[in-house]
Specification:
single chain; 411 residues; Growth Hormone, Chain: A; globular
Amino acid sequence: MSSKPTPATPALDEPHSKKQLLWLIAVLVFVCMNLRPMLTGLGPVLDSVRQSLQLSNTAVGLLITLPVLCFGLIAPIAPKLLPYFSAERLVTLGMIIQVIGIALRSLFGAPGLFIGTLVGGIGIGIVMVVLPGLIKQHFPTKASLMMGVYSTALCLGATISAALAVPLEELPGSSWRWSLAFWLVPATVSIVAWWRINRNTPQTAASVRSASALPKLSRNWLAWHITLYMGTQSTIAYCVFGWLPVILIDRGLSPLNAGFALSLLMLVQIVTSLTAPWMAQHGRDQRGVIAGLSILMWVGILGLFFAPIGQVWLHATVAGLGLGGIFAMSLAFLVLRSPNAQVAAALSGMAQGVGYTIAATGPFLVGWLHEVTDSWNSVAIFFMVLMSVATCFGLSAGRNLTIKLPEPRKS
């Protein structure tokens, strides 16, 4: 007797349940908003952390590097869990691990700070790798737009956490520890919301359920260009998120204004993180969009280093527009260049695995360079090298191509 076939999961952009679709998008946005506060909520209070725990710049660079390194290490592993867990359950697991990490780093001193950052990075990494394949599965005709929504939600969460970090620290009886611990609340709520809306959802990993169904992309040059674009733009972004407040404080801004400058940079990312994928989907290819965003990135970041400090708000805005767009495009390439959900899942694992491993070196190198040279000029040169490489790989990945898999050999 043949076994009963497993029914295919309907794409969520079909009109089978408009109300369920809207609720799922809302919960997805809320989940994504909680993937950045653990990272960007640290930068504005980093000076307080450094003084309280007497950390060197190299140790601070390691602290900023840890979660990004976890993203890289967990990315190749997460897709291989799909034969055993649905994508929805993997997202739930990742969020639970993140909450544990937030608690450890906020409440248990210096050891907890580093261990919790490591644990939280693993949790966030799982969620970030699984979501692109899930979005490609559920929204096959609107995947690029939904990746724009995804990246916009990340930017919104980063903006809120950067803006609230110092005010939370300065509350009566508070400290940097409670500023970091605050994000336990929305992160826990996001777990409950995600579980409730997905508890009766069929295992949408059906199309990527077999580990052997995930294609091998290690010999595909287009996959490598997307991966290296992901890596270099992520290196730039995490160096900015972690070190910009410290750089601006050294240039004469107060900690509160430095936090607000980072928050402004995060806020304006929302504009291009949503519009860049939309423009890219309606053009012949994405090279023009990448070129424009790269110019904004160059002008903004170099202005933050060298322009008069009174222009910090202008250059934070310009840099944010550039960084938000190139980040959104690196995510959009995961679905734009993938013919199906299996390739999207495999490309997500490869691009984020290798890419974030590369990015993990950035914040550490910034701290080391500043400590060795006692100057931010060497760090600015480092940024220029990164931006040059990112622009080159972005223009290559922006061509109107799709990843082609080799034909299976005939037995």
